[in-house]
Write a structure and sequence with these properties.
Layout lengths: L19 H11 L5 E2 L14 H9 L14 H12 L11 E5 H13 L5 E6 L3 H9 L3 E8 L5 E2 L1 H6 L5 E7 L11 H13 L3 E5 L15 H5 L5 E6 L11 E7 L6 H13 L5 H12 L5 H4 L4 H14 L4 E2 L8 E2 L2 E2 L9 H12 L1 E2 L1 E2 L11 E4 L4 H18 L2
Parallel strand pairs: 1-13, 3-4, 3-6, 6-7, 7-8
Antiparallel strand pairs: 2-9, 4-5, 8-9, 10-12, 11-15, 14-15
Helix pairs in contact: 1-13, 2-10, 3-10, 4-5, 4-9, 12-14
Length: 405
C-alpha cells in the first residue's frame, strides 16, 4: 500500500498554540512531570466556572434540543444577538443577519470558505490569532500580515496596512481586543481601519470575542458602528471567554453594512451553514440567557477581580525580569512579552519555548506561532491565580537568567 500523506493544502498551515510544543508537553506528562499549561486561554482548568443561570438554562432546554435546529441558529439565540448589537447602535441588525456557529473558530472557517477564491489576499494583523492565517490559507487565499506597533501600544500600523494593499486585496481582519497582545483600539483607530476598508472597497472581518474583557479605562468600539451602510462588516463574537464556557462552543457572526451587495456571498455562507446541518443546539440556548442576564464578568475585570489582578501582576513581574519588556494589556487574557535580542540571543523562539518547557515545566507559546516577524516574543496566558502565576513567572525568570548573554 502506498504511503498516506497529508493534503498539500496543509503545507503552509500552522497552529502552534496546539502544535509540536504541546506534543512535547504530553510526552513529559507521560513521564510523570507536572506541566503548567499557559499556552491556551481555556478558563475551566483555572477555576473559572460558568454562571449558574447559563448552565441551568442549557439543562432545562435539553429535552427540546435533540433534533436539528435552523442552520443559522435557533430563533431565540439569533434574536438575543441581534438585540445586543441594536443596543450598541446597530439598529438595522435583524435576526436574519446572525449566524450561530460552534464557536467563532468554525465561523471563521465557514466565512472564509464562502468568501475567498484562490489567490485572494486577506490582510491579517501580526501578531495574530493563528487560526485566521491558517483558515485563509486553507480556503486558498494568501494572508498578508500588517504590523502592529509595539512601541505604540500594539496599535495597527496604518501606513503599513496601506502599503500592503494591492488590487487583489479583498478584506481586512481586525482583532480587537487583540489576542495575543491585549491591545484595545481607540475609537480613532477603529474608525481609521474602517476608513481604509472604505477607500479600498474591502470587507471588514472584526474578531471581537474579547470585547467584554477590558481593564481600567479601556473602552471597546465595534468596527460595525463605523462601517455604517457602505462597508460590509462581519462581526465575530461568542460566549467562550466572557462567560467561561469554552467547551460549549457557542459563537456567532453578525453581518452589517450593504447586505444587498453581498447577496451572492451570503447565499454561499448559508449553503455552508446548511451543509453542517446546524450548530450545537443545547449551547445555543445559553446565548439568550447570557446576553440578557446578570453580567457576572464585571466582578472579574474590575480592580480586585481575578482577570484584572492577574493581568496586572503578570505584566509587572515580566517587566521586572532583566531584558524583558511587556506592554501592559488593556484587555483579553494574555501577555506578549519581548525578549531583548541584545540580552537573549535567540535564533529560534520555538526551540526556546521547548527548552523552557523541559527545564521548568512551563508551557507557553512562541511569538512566531502568532505570525510575528522576529523570534523575540512569547505569549503567556494570565488565567492562573496570583500565587501560581507568580511561581510560573519566577520559573521563567530563573530560566532566562541561565541563558542571558
Amino acid at each position: 500500500m502506498r504511503r498516506i500523506v497529508q493534503s498539500k493544502k496543509l503545507q503552509h498551515v500552522r497552529y502552534d498554540v496546539r502544535g509540536p510544543i504541546l506534543v512535547e508537553a504530553h510526552r513529559l506528562e507521560s513521564e510523570g512531570h507536572k506541566i503548567l499549561k499557559l499556552n491556551i486561554g481555556n478558563t475551566a482548568p483555572f477555576g473559572f466556572e460558568a454562571p449558574e443561570a447559563i448552565v441551568a438554562d442549557m439543562i432545562h432546554n435539553l429535552p427540546e434540543s435533540q433534533g436539528y435546529a435552523d442552520s443559522q441558529g435557533i430563533y431565540s439565540a439569533r434574536t438575543a444577538v441581534a438585540q445586543y448589537y441594536q443596543s450598541h447602535g446597530l439598529t438595522d441588525t435583524g435576526v436574519d443577519d446572525v449566524y450561530i456557529g460552534n464557536g467563532v473558530s468554525e465561523l471563521i472557517g465557514m466565512v472564509l470558505q464562502a468568501f475567498v477564491d484562490d489567490g485572494n489576499e486577506i490582510l491579517v494583523p501580526a501578531p495574530d490569532y493563528p487560526l485566521w492565517t491558517g483558515a485563509v490559507t486553507l480556503s486558498g487565499g494568501t494572508a498578508v500580515h500588517y504590523r502592529c506597533d509595539e512601541a505604540n501600544g500594539w496599535n495597527p500600523d496604518l501606513e503599513d496596512i496601506e502599503a500592503k494593499i494591492t488590487g487583489n486585496t479583498h478584506a481586512i481582519v481586525v482583532i480587537n481586543p487583540n489576542n495575543p497582545t491585549g491591545a484595545v483600539y481607540s475609537e480613532e483607530t477603529v474608525r481609521a481601519l474602517v476608513d481604509i476598508a472604505r477607500r479600498h472597497r474591502l470587507v471588514v472581518m472584526a474578531d471581537e470575542i474579547y470585547e467584554k474583557i477590558l481593564f481600567d479605562d479601556a473602552v471597546h468600539h465595534h468596527a460595525a458602528t463605523h462601517a455604517a451602510d457602505d462597508v460590509l462588516c462581519l462581526t465575530f463574537s461568542g460566549l467562550s471567554k466572557a462567560y467561561r464556557v469554552c467547551g460549549y462552543r457557542a459563537g456567532w457572526v453578525m453581518v452589517s453594512g450593504p447586505k444587498h451587495l453581498a447577496e451572492d456571498f451570503l447565499e454561499g455562507l448559508t449553503l455552508l451553514a446548511n451543509m453542517r446541518m446546524c450548530a450545537n443546539v443545547p449551547a445555543q440556548h445559553a446565548i439568550q440567557t447570557a446576553l440578557g442576564g446578570y453580567q457576572s464578568l464585571t466582578e472579574l475585570i474590575v480592580p480586585g477581580g481575578r482577570f484584572h489582578e492577574q493581568s496586572k501582576l503578570a505584566s509587572r513581574l515580566l517587566n521586572e525580569i532583566p531584558g524583558v519588556s511587556c506592554v501592559e494589556p488593556r484587555g483579553a487574557l494574555y501577555c506578549f512579552p519581548r525578549l531583548d535580542p541584545q540580552v537573549y540571543r535567540i535564533e529560534s523562539d520555538e526551540a526556546f519555548v521547548i527548552d523552557l518547557l523541559r527545564a521548568k515545566k512551563i508551557l507557553v507559546t512562541h511569538g512566531t506561532g502568532f505570525n510575528w516577524f522576529e523570534p523575540d516574543h512569547f505569549r503567556l496566558v494570565t488565567l492562573p491565580d496570583v500565587d501560581t502565576l507568580t511561581e510560573a513567572i519566577g520559573r521563567i525568570a530563573d530560566y532566562l537568567e541561565t541563558i542571558r548573554d
